[in-house]
Amino acid sequence: MHNHFITSLRHIRKNSLYSAINMAGLATAIVVMLFAIMYWKDERSFDRFHTNNPHLYRITTTLIENPGAERTTVGGTGQVQGPAFKAGIPGINDYVRILGGDIYGTITSAKKNLTVQTLFADKNFFNVFSFKILNGNPYTALDDISSAVITRSTAIKIFNNTDVVGRQLVMDADPSYEKLGKPVRVSAVVEDPPFHSSLQFDVVFTLDYFQLSFVDENWLNAYLGTFIVLNPNAKQNDIVTSMNRIFNEKAKEQLNKSKTNFGLDPKISYGLQPLTDIHLQPLTRTTGNAENGVINGSNPVYSYMFAGIAFFIMLMASINFINISIAGTLKRAKETGIRKISGGSSRSIITQFLLEAALLCLISFLVALLSANILLPLFNTLSGKQISLSNIIDVGLILNTISFFVLIVLFTGLYPAFVLAKFKPSEVLYNKQRLSGKNYLGRSLVVIQYSLAICLLIGTIVYYSQMKFVQTKDLGYNPHQIIRTAVGGDRDYKQVMSYLKNEFAKEPSIKTASFGNDGYPENMEYEQKKLKAVYRNIDENFLTALEIPLMTGRNLSSHNNTDIQTGALVNEAFVKAFNIQQPVGKTVTVYRYDDTVQRVIHGVVKDFHFNSLREPIQPVLMHVRETPDGGIWIKFDKSQQQRALQAVQNIYRKVMPSAVYQYQFLDELNAAQYFQEQRWQKIIFIATLLSLIVCVLGLYGLAHLSTTRRVKEIGIRKVLGASVQQIVKLVATDFIKLIIIAFIIAAPIAWLIMHQWLLGFAYRIHIGPLIFIAAAIVSIAVALIAVGFQSVKSALNNPVESLRNE
């Protein structure tokens, strides 16, 4: 073994070019694989720190609104399910209801105003979940309706320290706070929820506090999260059956009323979801956060996609290793022959070459580990993670890494070692040894390697094109030079809105301002046809501010009592969905809560995208109110942007001095809907770049070996008059043929994969021939760069040098 080791080191040093190519490719692939493993492990580590109750589940609600309608499952219930299920099912030891995630409020204390993420929960919240209490008693922290538990960072921001139990908090314009009638006091301080928690918050109030302003007895609602602790001996199927039985008993009257009054026949059933499954199956109603307390939701497809990319790049690097090893076998044929004549067995020769492969892999692994540690902050930025090596390294990971290392050594070293071990000494020493056939295996490996790279390349081009499309598509309105803000809390809206409207109108840098909301899905009916449509509150400036064209009819006015009572605008999708002929003047029935509203269509607007392009444009019915909701869209003069922003802030703070002023540009809000896709666009681009680099390294190594083995042939051709161009063509043609075959294989596979991905967008690009032409040009250009450089170098060599020695 000592001799094998020394010989391996000598060979690696002597063949430094090929060794460097193999190590660079392997190290690159191992870095990507390590990051994929880290990402996979991190995605599946969420919510595992909750050790208080191992049998903790979330109740899920599945709804089919009418027979034949779409089946929807959400991670929420109403307020009544938790207590009713606990009382009626012995297998449920405890429950806790949580409302939050997308709820924010303003705390005023110590002359500071702070916007905080609020959570409302039952009193046993800190008994059920394992959040670390720094100050206070976790068992009694939420016993009092006026209690508030704040996080460490919130305590420092407000009070500059964490020893704040007993201090008072003032909630700005909070309806429950106004009805409480006494101060809210800090009862405990907890450590900030860890990154790997699906429940995130700054302040926790009791659910009793929330119910001061909103009590809901409706069994058909599903908006807050209800978590239950099961008895260890309870069977999940029995619990689910009991929950559905209790629902059918308790909700019977409400179901009948829904069918009688609104013509709806909902089918509702319940299920259980383990706490540790929530991160990868958040079950929110929309792509954003819901109010069931859960945020940081993800999709398992990203883990699989990253693992697939890492596997592809690792396969490419391994193919490089095998191809270069096989191509270099003839250079080592005499060494093998002498070993056999000297008494070396095939087993000994295989051991020798496996040890060389192991040394190269070991060096690559060490380089990869160092590189991964250096690049980890960049990877965290790209992936949105907070991964640290110290947190993910465990016995299982170490054993998997060792197994992975052994697998790579066997995969990359075993076949070349067997090829060399089969050489016959008599043929080798008399220069009669040749690789059998036309090296179909080596050629096939090159085709497979480049097919994977081309698949990634086409995927990257399609991905980039789709993201460019969603960023530049006409949305049906102009989102530029518009800021979005809101009036939150329980205020005198009429007075506040009136003041804001008047002050905005006086400011020359502000073109117009519109007030309203983003709308809610409601059931509507026209001529016995019932559908869901978005019911949206606007004012007369909405169309002007967003530059939405009015196709027919007239606009609404919040100063016209008839418009307020019965008027409506609809979009083209609404007219199409209800199949309304001559829509102006037609009456639509809107079902809201326990009431119905009759709305007369006064105008039709052009369709506009108010959601992401993943979803088709929904039917919308817009109406005006004397006092609109608190959303504000402000159109400003582009040349006076800074003045407009400052003016809006001054006006806002003057009328609401205790509120925290926040705003966003509307075009940036639209872009944020594709934040996850934009993040993965960067990751896929880098992966494609790395795969092409690995391919270039492999092709360069193979071209170098090819020209080295054909050095006399090239010299003879030059002596006989062959030009540099002819020799370059001779060497490069074989490789270009393989690239063309790889492209023919990769193109349909890439089309199928990316077509499936595009189906997730209601509005998408067409994968046309230009995409494949671009991919083909890039693929061939990269191959020519890799092969051409070595070909030209060989073609320019002096033939005398290559022919003078036999």
What percentage of residues falls in helices of 4 or more residues? 40-55%
Q: Low-confidence segments, ≥5 residues, pLDDT <50?
A: none
Distance between the termini: 35 Å
Proportion of strand residues = 15-25%
- Discrete helix count: 27
Overall morphology: globular
Number of strands: 22
By secondary-structure content and strand pairing, the structural class works out as alpha+beta
- Largest sheet strand order: 3-4-9-6-8-7
| Global Rg | 34 Å
Average pLDDT, rounded to a whole number, is 85
Largest sheet: 6 strands, mixed, barrel
How is this structure best described in words?
The structure is a single chain. This protein has 806 residues and is α+β, with helices and mostly antiparallel strands. It contains 27 helices and 22 strands. The strands form three sheets. Strands 3-4-9-6-8-7 form a six-stranded mixed barrel. Helix 3 packs across helix 8 (236-250) and helix 23 (675-709) runs parallel beside helix 26. It is globular and about 105 Å long. The mean pLDDT is 85.
